[in-house]
Amino acid sequence: MKQKIISPLPLVRNIKSITFSLLALVFLCTSNEILGQSNSRIDSLKTAFENETNDSLKVLAEINLAKGIHKMQHDLESEYFHAKEAVDRALRINDTVLYARALDNLGLLYRYHQRYDQALSLHTRAFELIKDKDVDPIFKMIMGNNAGVAGRYNHNNDTAFLYYMQALKIAEDENNLKNIAISSNGIGNTLSNIPGRENEALPYFERSLKAQQDIGNDLGVAMNYLSISDYYIVKGDFKTANEYLKILLKLNQDRNDEFGIAITYEYMGISKLKEGKDLDKAVTYFQTSADGYKSLKNIHRQAEILTHLGNTYLKKSELNRAEDYYNQSLELSKNLNALGMISTNVLKLSEVSEQRGDYKSALSNFKLSQVYKDSININEQNVKIEALTQEYNLEKKESHIQFLEKDKALQQVLLNTQKDELKRRQIITILLAIALGAILIIFFMQYRNYRIRKTANERLNQAEKEKMVTIYERNLAQAEILVTRLQINPHFIFNSLNAITYLIQSEQNCKAIEYLGIFSHYTRMVLETSKQQVISLQEELELAENYLKLEENRFSNDFKYVISGIENPDLEDVLIPPLLIQPFLENAIWHGLLASPRKKKLLSIHIDIDENTTQIIIDDNGAGRDNKNKINTIKSHNSMGMGIIKERIELYNKTNEGKINYKIIDKKDDEGKPLGTRIILELNNTMDYFRNHPSKMSVNHA
Hints:
The protein is of the alpha+beta class. It has helices at residues 16-51, 55-72, 76-92, 96-112, 116-130, 137-153, 157-174, 177-192, 201-215, 218-235, 238-254, 258-275, 279-295, 299-315, 319-336, 339-356, 359-434, 439-486, 490-505, 509-529, 537-554, 582-593, 642-655, 686-692; strands at residues 535-536, 559-564, 575-576, 601-609, 613-620, 659-668, 674-684. The chain has a domain at 531-702: Histidine kinase-like ATPase, C-terminal domain (Heat Shock Protein 90, 2-Layer Sandwich).
């Protein structure tokens, strides 16, 4: 989860924390009532979803179910599950608007849980899908503003500004005051966070304020007064800021808004603290605000106010009281696991110790604050990785659906052509029955139809050929990347591509597409796993099986393979360096099975897992290593080589607590004749070690 590091003088430069607190307040005030109704409401939503038979309405029902679970049950796993299922369901029925709405809904859930990278990619994708389509403009405004909010929370101010402006343009065209206010306020907050453009924010805040006043939205008016007050505080115009804060306090008191009153006193304290003239009054404001947050049980805001009080007393040089408030805020921050606030308070305690001359404590606290900052950075990197993975998976699904749609369109063209042909023949039959004198005309029409069919067939064949060439070129590029980055056997890559070329040239398109699918999946998996130091044994076996499928397809039917033991649920927990098994399979095929005179060539992989040791047994009935009578039917095959495997295993064993060993057994009968080769690969303690050391599982690309 991302945490915002509070600055030494924490002015709130945007409305993110305010929005979350307002949502928390609404939930708190209505929690007792919702608790009594939530179960029945969720049951009702589930029933509506399960009973719905219309595909489009089922997507909407699942979106509503995901929202309901988030609001009433807060079951993170369940709400994500239904939101993602709605996305997949909308994609399958090829409804762009529903797909965009499902993406936007999933983005909202990620945003509510402060996973802003993932939220941003979903909101922007949703908006881009419908921005040029003839759909209800309200969806464009909502998705554009959501993309702006996610971009601002994620500190991507240029992205936030772009989508807010697009949403504002649509709202202006529709004269939608509500969304004009939302977009304008978002643009103002975004500009406030861009160095050198802070002065441009005020007109947008004022425009948003005017729109909220016109539609009579007191909450929106209050939020804009707060934004404008913050704008003047940052500029150092404390007199104007205080005037707006007084108006805001009166408005919140008239609305009987406890949270609004508390945050107004907080900003009045911030203004005094920033001005530095009447720090006692700043203390009074902060304490009043703290009392308000305490009555609302808003622990996060209480912790921030305690930090403000610590900053105030630090500025007054009352170190003991400053230290006391920092420690109180630190205790609350730890309970919340708010890494940003923890880091800030520890850093401020370091500053207190430094002013006292206690440099040992100052250094200790400073180092501790850096540790928390590093933890925040790691969390942010993990979230970015998850966002990129999510974006990749969505693109893959969309590409698959597009491929199916193109194939469907091609089939429809063929069907239409056949229908046209049938109609033409019926016309010819009728004309022949009516008059023999129409023979010449019919002959001419037949010739014309022949030319049309020929042209249509040529176009279809050309389109099919271009499609196959495109797929071939794409996979060729992937193969080049593979050879460069992973040193995979180039003979295997180019033999596979030659097989694809042959199938295309011989017009065996169905086989070519099937072969391309396996090859594409294999190369894509290799690219994905190449970024990791270790992968699960389940993924490694999937890579191995794809490789064996490719080899099985390339050679005659006398080669078969069997993989057993894959039903073990612990496969996902056993970790192994990627592409460790494949060289053993290459040697078994190329130097054992293909050199064997046996008619039936069999390769088996068996997995045996116990508490501390995993055995991978690779067995073949090939010619064996020591058979000097091998049939020389193939050229010498240069695989990655056992030398590289040996070096990889040695390096792995030196740098990790888990150990990998292997041994090769030459199988022979009673007369000493070779029966094949068996390889036993042992992984010791790889499961337990990586569970306790998760940082070892990723490669550092710094």
